Amino acid sequence: MDKNLDSFEKGYEILEKNGAFLIFPEGISKGKRVLEKIKTGTVRIGFGAEVKNNFSLNVVIIPIGLSYSDLVRFRSNVMVRFGNPINLADFEEEYRNDQFATVRKITENIETALNKLTNYIPTEEIKDIVEGLELIYKMELMTEMGLELDNKKDDFLVTKMLTNAVKWYQDKNPEKVTQFREKLKNYLTLLKELNIRDEFLDPARQKKRGWNRTKTILFLIAGFPLFTWGILTNYPPYKLPRLIIKWFHDFQVEEASWKMMYGMVFFIVYYGFGIGIVWYLTRDLLWVGIFTISLIPSGNFALYYSKSINKYRQHVKFLSIFYQKRSIIFQIIEERMTIMRFLKNAKDEYIESVQLEA
């Protein structure tokens, strides 16, 4: 309780000085893609400061949505979107009449805004459906709509459209959601059994991505020396934090933080050790400088190279399976086509129903 009071008093102090501060209103982070229940503390601090100063501070709450492409991976993308400001002075009369109801109302407004501003999923029960659609249908839908696959705004827009559609079906026609869940489960099980990716079964997506095997092979051959250098100078401090986290840390939400902490220590020590060896062998500041400058770029290149070679290896593996087990591949393709037909009908029904409701 004392810590809460201290936080509130500090908030009042900042606002009275015309300052600003950031609050994460969920109050907890579980590393999930579902927005947790928003706490009332943000609104209570704002109103508390206004009441102390007779509503003269003009306190404004601005919802900010943070959407991560990967919650635990560094160098992944994050989209920041700002919502409409909420001016607490506009609610002065309501607050004086019923403090509890007004605080609850504005907190719900914040929660609604954050759901619109993020690619979070409203409820846990449809999470698997939305993520399945993102895997097998989102890029096809973006292509159909004439959107850019690499445009983060377009990607966000389509994710929200898919989420809203699934939520609509969950409310209006849950039986259809159950049907799709079963079809999706069967299809993903087949993919998992053969360890192949959905994108290899979608010719339109492959064409749009411009897969060029010759260019990839040339890149892998030409880039191999730099990749080898990047592995020698970066792999041990890159790998060790991941092994430690795997052995000693169970919570996904803490993974990125622990990676950063362990990584900073291991990279500093490993880089320092390497620089020391180069100095000992050459006694030449020029070579030490060249070595030092090469460390981070070669590490980044090695990471990109490894992703490219993994993707190419998976593609080659798919071709091998295709020629060896054609009947199974054709079965999977038929499953996918059935799902696509199901989704097309569901999309048409959803658009028609939403237009009628509007």
From TrEMBL:
Keywords, comma-separated and alphabetical: Membrane, Transmembrane, Transmembrane helix
Any GO MF annotation of the entry: glycerol-3-phosphate O-acyltransferase activity
InterPro entries: GPAT/DAPAT (IPR052744)
TM spans (from-to): 217-235, 256-279, 285-305
GO BP annotations, alphabetical order: phospholipid biosynthetic process
Name assigned to this protein: Phospholipid/glycerol acyltransferase domain-containing protein
Provenance organism: marine metagenome
